[in-house]
């Protein structure tokens, strides 16, 4: 990875409603190239945000600009999809497909030039550490390996915008360590947005963290700044109920103060 | 890793195995669907010939074949519309409706042609026209079922409807039954053709427009 691939993500007034549930409430955010961690409790709106950015779900209201194009415009959305990589929580695969075939299938979805697909597939599968299983059926792989296949398909088109929803679920500690290094590498030139429950992923791999709660942005800053909020609370105290390490304590501190402010803001 | 240099025509890295059309066909289980369509046509041809040959029956006994074979063929087409990587597919650069249209149109044409050939002779009474019309209508119902219920259960509404029509249809063709029991009409009834065609256009259109319903 070397050159900046240009363009980031800007959302303004983004609202997503699922029947009566408000998943995102007029959210304004922007993401420049780098690795961005998206934290928050279950139901905070992380997956809803990622799905809108991946263009698989339409927002109820608001504007979304991906890589310089407005996704409400058909042509610009199409161009953005070409340069987008996405790993959903459940990506679904075809039981008869090998790793090579599945990743090639996604390369085809991205309209990569046919001649470049075989080489790109082999490179990306090697990059996620599955070179020796490239011709194994996906269904024969372990959960962690299948997750890595998912990461490979998201990277196959060398995306300018990479969206990962719970990418480290099922990975063992060594694989998570390698994955974070991979994220940092991709984030040098691309915009990477990672939704996760694991604050240690954010602490070690992300340049910026966004904390969502109840469909709103509760906090934005660097992982260091979030950790500092945890350090300010109860220094030196063991078995702190807010968390085991500074970033966990920072996360809990922000969430609690946001929940205290939220009812007032909605009044 | 040796890049693409070690590719062979039969191996896992062959250009054919990684060709888009080949990957698409396998992802939608097209080989299985085609095998079921050919087997259904062969079974229909054998059973209709056998029924006609029985001393106590004549060609009108083929009503069972022109009723069951289209249901089976449509079930194969409908369940084959399952998309396992639905979320990733929705990030595709090209819109899917053209592929869905081509997929459904080609399979419908093949099913109609194969099953039409399975019941030769006596076109006025449960011959090729009735078989082709019923295939068209049931495939339309299966496509609508895939869009509304999901591909796995796409066979259910048409089977329920078909069973009710088989049991309740009057023995005399034509009249209102040519519409609500089009599956049981012997052949030349225009209303039955219009109904089957309308069902196909609406059901197929619904599927082409929105795709199969997402399934867990």
Automatic annotation (TrEMBL), chain A:
Superkingdom of this protein's organism: Bacteria
Region called Disordered, residue ranges: 224-249
Keywords, alphabetical: ATP-binding, Nucleotide-binding, Transport
Start and end residues of each ABC transporter domain: 9-239
Gene Ontology molecular function terms on file: ATP binding; ATP hydrolysis activity
PANTHER family: ABC TRANSPORTER, ATP-BINDING PROTEIN
Protein name according to UniProt: ABC transporter ATP-binding protein
Species the sequence originates in: Streptomyces finlayi
TrEMBL record, chain B:
Transmembrane segments: 29-49, 61-81, 101-119, 190-209
Keywords for the protein's UniProt record, in alphabetical order: Membrane, Transmembrane, Transmembrane helix
Protein name, entry field: Uncharacterized protein
Source species of the chain: Streptomyces finlayi
């Amino acid at each position: 990875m070397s050159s900046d691939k240009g363009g980031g993500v800007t959302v303004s007034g983004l609202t997503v409603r699922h029947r009566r549930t408000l998943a995102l409430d007029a959210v304004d955010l922007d993401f420049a190239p780098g690795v961005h961690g998206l934290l928050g409790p279950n139901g905070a709106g992380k997956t809803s945000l990622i799905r809108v950015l991946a263009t698989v779900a339409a927002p109820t209201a608001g504007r979304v600009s991906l890589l310089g194009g407005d996704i409400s415009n058909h042509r610009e959305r199409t161009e953005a999809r070409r340069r987008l990589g996405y790993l959903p929580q459940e990506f679904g695969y075809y039981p008869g497909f090998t790793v090579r075939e599945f990743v090639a299938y996604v390369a085809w979805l991205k309209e990569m030039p046919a001649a470049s697909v075989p080489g790109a597939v082999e490179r990306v599968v090697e990059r996620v550490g599955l070179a020796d299983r490239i011709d194994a059926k996906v269904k024969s792989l372990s959960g962690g390996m299948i997750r890595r296949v998912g990461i490979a398909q998201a990277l196959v088109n060398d995306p300018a915008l990479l969206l990962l929803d719970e990418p480290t679920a099922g990975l063992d500690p060594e694989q998570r360590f390698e994955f974070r290094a991979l994220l940092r590498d991709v984030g040098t030139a691309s915009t990477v947005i990672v939704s996760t429950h694991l604050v240690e992923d954010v602490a070690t791999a992300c340049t910026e963290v966004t904390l969502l709660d109840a469909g709103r942005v509760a906090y934005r800053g660097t992982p260091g700044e979030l950790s500092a909020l945890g350090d300010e609370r109860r220094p030196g105290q063991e078995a702190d109920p807010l968390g085991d390490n500074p970033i966990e304590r920072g996360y809990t501190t922000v969430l609690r103060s946001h929940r205290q402010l939220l009812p007032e803001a909605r009044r | 890793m040796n890049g693409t240099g070690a590719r062979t025509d039969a191996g896992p890295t062959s250009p054919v195995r990684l060709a888009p059309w080949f990957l698409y066909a396998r992802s939608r289980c097209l080989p299985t669907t085609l095998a079921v369509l050919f087997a259904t046509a062969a079974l229909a041809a054998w059973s209709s010939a056998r029924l006609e040959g029985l001393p106590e029956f004549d060609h009108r006994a083929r009503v069972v074949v022109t009723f069951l074979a289209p249901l089976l063929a449509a079930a194969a087409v409908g369940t084959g519309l399952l998309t396992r990587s639905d979320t990733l597919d929705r990030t595709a650069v090209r819109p899917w409706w053209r592929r869905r249209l081509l997929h459904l149109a080609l399979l419908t044409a093949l099913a109609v042609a194969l099953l039409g050939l399975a019941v030769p002779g006596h076109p006025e009474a449960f011959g090729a026209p009735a078989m082709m019309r019923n295939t068209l209508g049931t495939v339309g119902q299966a496509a609508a079922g895939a869009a509304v219920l999901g591909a796995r259960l796409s066979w259910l509404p048409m089977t329920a409807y078909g069973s009710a029509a088989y049991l309740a249809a009057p023995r005399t063709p034509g009249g209102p039954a040519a519409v609500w029991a089009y599956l049981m009409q012997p052949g030349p009834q225009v209303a039955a053709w219009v109904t089957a065609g309308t069902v196909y256009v609406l059901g197929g259109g619904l599927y082409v427009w929105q795709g199969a319903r997402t399934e867990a």
